[in-house]
Amino acid sequence: MDEFEELLSTARTAYARGDWYAAYRNFTHARTFSELPTDDLSLLGSSAWWVGQVRESLEISEEVYHRFNDDGDVLGAAKKALNLALLWFIRGDLVIASGWVNRARRILLQLPEGVEHGYLVYLDATVALDFGNLQPARDAAATLQEMGRRLRAPALTSFGLVLAGLADVRSGSTATGFAQLDEAMLPVLAGQLPPEWAGDIYCTVIHACHALADLSRMRAWTQATEQWCEQFHGEAIYSGICRIHRLQLQSAEGGWDAAEEAIERTGSELVGRNNWVAGEAYYQLGEIRRLRGDLSGAREAYARAQELGCEPQPGESLLQHAAGKQDAAWAGLCAALAGRDRLACARLLESAVEIALALGLQEEAERLCGQLEETAAVYATAGFRAWAGQARAAVLIAQSRHEEALPVLQSAAREYRGLHARYETAKVYELLGRAHHGLGETGTAAADTATALAIYRELGALPDVQRLDGRRLPGGLTEREADVLSFIAAGASNKDAADALFISQKTVGRHLANIFAKIGVSSRTAAAAWAHEHGLPPRR
Known about the structure:
80% of the residues lie in helices and 0% in strands. The protein is mainly alpha-helical. It has helices at residues 3-16, 20-31, 38-50, 54-70, 74-91, 94-108, 115-130, 134-151, 154-171, 174-189, 195-211, 215-229, 237-253, 256-270, 275-292, 295-307, 315-322, 326-338, 342-358, 362-379, 382-398, 402-419, 422-438, 442-459, 462-469, 479-489, 494-501, 505-519, 524-533. Helix 7 runs parallel beside helix 9 and helix 15 (275-292) runs parallel beside helix 17.
């Protein structure tokens, strides 16, 4: 066996066991000796996608498609067109994905009905569902399950259950919907779906859990996806996607220090690979920075999320609210609410109630709160119930109906604790403090407020700490910026400060730029002198 054949044999074996890096490396090496056979070139394209070489993967896969077409292999060309449609859809480019769907449709019209026709039905319905159209998904689900039985194709049965489950979940039949999604995973777990399609199903289900604020189910599905990824050797593209979902959960639980660095790094790695999830990552990064008082960093992250197709609401409006731009905050949320269906609106409504109350728009706050309560009653998830309770309590407190607010807040606190949602739990304790204060129960009010303050301190939610504690850092610095400046004042390098604070040198540099702008200096020496004058102790 010559070296070319040996490399091909090694690459094929590696691909079969899910060792994408070894497959990619050996196929690429073999390609330097001679042109790869079409089937091997197809495996190289798939391997390249799994290791994150997305552009190369798409170029190779398109070459494979043209080879099949030129050789008269109509079925092979159809399969490759379908796979390219999926990969472009995952990447976040719906226009090109739609082009490949239509190309697959044109080819399949020449062929008798087969499993590939079912893949086309699934892609068509997925695109329709992405635009909020449930009926095509329901019709396609019935078609796919019938085809799955008739053609003995477990993959089509799984696709049908996914579509039916998502349609039910989005319409409010969450228990039925998730039962179908659970059943859809049986063929996936049995290895009866191509891995790219199986991974997309996992991500679709996790996204549904996140949209419903069902963090407990999201944890379970993220863990299941991570276990599924373990069958593959080395880092694969879905490992990065799982990491973002895990970091979203970590952010809810309060691990902001570690999450901030990891989200920025992993989100950057996913750009061009899966822009949907990369956009979610940058939005979550913006949320952490906003809650920590890093307003410029939050704006930067929200802008990046928007570039990637993720609308940065309600975070962007809450950022404007924190900067005192109440009218702009309200206008942004109203515009976002006007363009969304009931499920998508749920994530915005509690923030909309907060801003409406800040503007004195009592009737609007009442209307939005009622809308959120109706949504929570339909979908019946712990997250929605907690949001609705928090919003209702805020409205009741604004109306001086403090006693009525107490049981609502206690119920919301239980829901948030069950979800391990630390920041939201602190917000409820703050509202409990306001309700008890309104009833004249100053001791209980002080205890509730102290609990909220302790959680805010633990999280590093500096704006909330400053609001409740009444103390301010000089120069409008955030707590993290003060930490960085204290190290710089002691003569530490960016690397020393980064190591001590467990952040990257890039983040230290960004904080320094913010510090210089806030305190009006242009050098480290001047910044150190400013820190000494304003009582910031150096740290080593």
